Amino acid sequence: MHQGTDSKGQRKRAVVLVSGGLDSTTVLAMARAQGYHCYTLSFDYGQRHRAELHAAERASAALGDVEHKVVRLNLDSIGGSALTDMAIAVPEQETAGIPITYVPARNTVFLSIALGWAEVLGANDIFIGVNAVDYSGYPDCRPEYIAAFETMANLATRAGVEGQRLTIHTPLMQLGKGDIIRAGIDLGVDYSLTVSCYQATDSGLACGKCDSCRLRRTGFQQAGVPDPTRYRP
């Protein structure tokens, strides 16, 4: 049986978290290639890099999603991150430990809402582009965290209690950026549609200096393909 089909050979539904960046767009392409009907989910959470929301919509449409939903949150009301508090500068130098661009509990909040939508859709699969290789030190991108959330999800939902086990898919977990890009290109991903920069302009121009920009640029170098990113002059 194909991974993205049920016992009757029907295509299954999956909720795919998409940020508009390189990783999540690649994950969407992977889920589609596995045969899933993909319902894409983005969050307007008060982030400073709002160009990613437009990128998420563009990339989702280009890769043939069934429905794209944007959920509005106000994580900027609690702040605590350079991505949600305009008074905290986005670092342009590499930093040790967990960086200030970490958004407190972000993936827990996002996955919880994805879990709710999955139940409504009758979907048993959620895809997320977390990565343990180039993950910038974020604690909610580790395999231990994903395993713990999956356990919780199957305890906390009607679907889980009734035996419809939910799976959190993390196909990029052990891949470097170059490998991710090569995999995406093989699946037809147009990376010019994506935005990764933590402080991109409204039109999607990248700063070329933040941690996310550095990882992205290095990834294209590793993959041996031209970088389609539009950088600020």
Automatic annotation (TrEMBL):
Its cofactor is Zn(2+). Pathway: Purine metabolism; 7-cyano-7-deazaguanine biosynthesis. It comes from Kineobactrum salinum. Belongs to the QueC family. This is 7-cyano-7-deazaguanine synthase. GO terms for molecular function: ATP binding; ligase activity, forming carbon-nitrogen bonds; zinc ion binding. It is an enzyme of class 6 (ligase). Gene3D superfamilies: HUPs.
